[in-house]
Amino acid sequence: MMKAQIRLMHEWDDMPDRALPWAEYLLPIGAGFIPTIAGDMVWVEFPYDGDSRRPMIVGAAQDWAGGIPNVPPEASGQAGQFIPPDVPDAPPAPQLNPTKDAVLNRNGLLEVRSEGGGFAITRTSDGTTIGMNESGQAYMISKADLFLNAGGKVTIVAGNQLDIKAGGNMSFSTSGTISFKGGQIAFIKG
Q1: What is the model's pLDDT at position 72?
Q2: Taxonomically, which superkingdom (predicted)?
Q3: E-only strand ranges, the chain
Q4: Strand order in the sheet with 56-60
């Protein structure tokens, strides 16, 4: 039923787990959903005439256990921030500005929306990233295969130069015609 069991700290400490009430979530418009994980600290209200059997989770609670805030270190500026692997020729990632950027680090995905207009979603286990930095450079970095599929035409337009590099073999396949058009076409073996 998309609910979470809650325990009021210092009030229900001795209550057995089976007796704890199930809380519904206060959802954003559009029915977005971010579930809690066991141990998350949340704000709870009792909107149904104060009935403690019908709580509602209304948001995450700020905590400073051991002097460290319970937010991603990318948001707070604390130690432990994710450092992406170095990828030659990759554009710079969004610049983090602690306490000003929107940051979500959940289920192995780090999402950053920077104050300067950058955006990135990174799989923290290996650094696979889709993003755009503050200069508008978009990028995809995949530590595994990359697959693109379109139900129609795919067009790549480069205002100046288009480079395609492969560390191994490269193949082209079509059921139609392959055309190359240019002021000069050179095929160089080497």
Answers
A1: 87
A2: Bacteria
A3: 4-5, 22-25, 42-45, 56-60, 102-106, 109-113, 119-123, 128-132, 138-141
A4: 4-5, 22-25, 56-60, 42-45
